[in-house]
Design brief:
A 3-stranded parallel β-sheet has the order 6-7-8, covered by helices on one side. A 3-stranded antiparallel β-sheet has the order 13-10-16. A two-stranded antiparallel ribbon has the order 1-2. It is about 40% helix and about 25% strand. The chain contains 11 helices and 16 strands. The radius of gyration is 31 Å and the shape is elongated.
Amino acid sequence: VGKSTWINGFANYLRYNNLDDAIDSKKLISLIPSSFTYTDGDFNSTEIQVGQQCNNESTIVGHSATQTPRDYSFTKDDTIINLIDTPGIGDSRGIEQDKENFDNILSHVSYYKEIHAICILMKPNNSRLTVLFRFCIQELLVHLHRDAIRNIFFCFTNARTNFYAPGDTLPALKKELRDNNIDIELSKQNIFCFDNESFRFLACVENGLKFDEKTKRTYSDSWDIAIKESLRLVNQAKSLTPHKILDTLSLNNARKTILELCKPVAEIAVIIQKNTKRISDHKEIIRLDKKAMKDFSKRLLWSGLDIVRIELGHPRTVCTQGDCVETIAVGADNVKQTNYKQHCHPRCGLPGIPSETVGDSRLQSCAAMDRSVDPIECKECGHSYMLHMHMTYQLIIINKDFVFPEVQEQIKKKEKSTDRDSALIPLL
């Protein structure tokens, strides 16, 4: 959708009252590095570059261009605008990368108490509900508290070809919201249409390209429309009650806690099934072994599995990179457990970082991290902070011998072997 171009254009529209002022200033504002190809009437192509390249912006096709959230602050009259640029949704690296991006976004916005507007950028010509389109909308909304609905803005880019209107995307968007019972009423109050061709024109001029007055007037009109739409967005955001960030964070923390419990609960369920099978097998042994009561005492103990959770009492920074991890087979059935053997900071004092969340941006402040290099990496293992996480416990599966206390009690009370047999089977 041209998110980087939209952000760069937005900053320029709020700074310069018209295209002539922007050209005369010779100070194009480029918050985010971007590039595009301009082709003239003779089909000669020129590569246009704006801004300085940085590690936070990827140029790999299919990857989200923005790697981690970043703040941009600028002023319009008496209003200070803080714009948070976030990674996009639908990264070609898969759902896990989208999950990591969302975790980074939530971690980043936790430093704010409230947000006035959440801008969803879309193209105006998506007439069909593709799988990616539906995934992007649903995945975004599922992470937001329902009170954030009133602060959601839909911004359509490249809108000039659709007469500065949402175009074919609007019916598809309405259907998606309606089918998922999402109570968002699409109207002029939450729909904004832009076309950043005038910013691209300014970038071409800054790169030394020449244009006639007729072409310039066309893009000047587009610039004027972009200014009006940008100011309308800012004024609409100012008029709304800000969304409390804590509401969305609480929702996602609860969701994350439930997901984190899935693995331990599943492991416990497997252990229960195995123990139930072993008890059943042991009952069968007792039933068939009535004639060998002398050997039965050796079978009072049956070997099963148990799970032990050891609380550390403090966060521990560990590395999840392959060289720093080992897989250990534990228990009678060689259950494989992941052991994070590289303890980069055994007692980390950073608060508020969720357990088992890889790459939380706040880990950059961990004492184990070397912040003098870019990207930030661990002084202990040499790997990026984005491959680290906090652990607050150890989960260990062990072999354990279990005793039937009821059986022992009955055996003490029964003197004859026939009485012992009749007591054992019902209890098991």
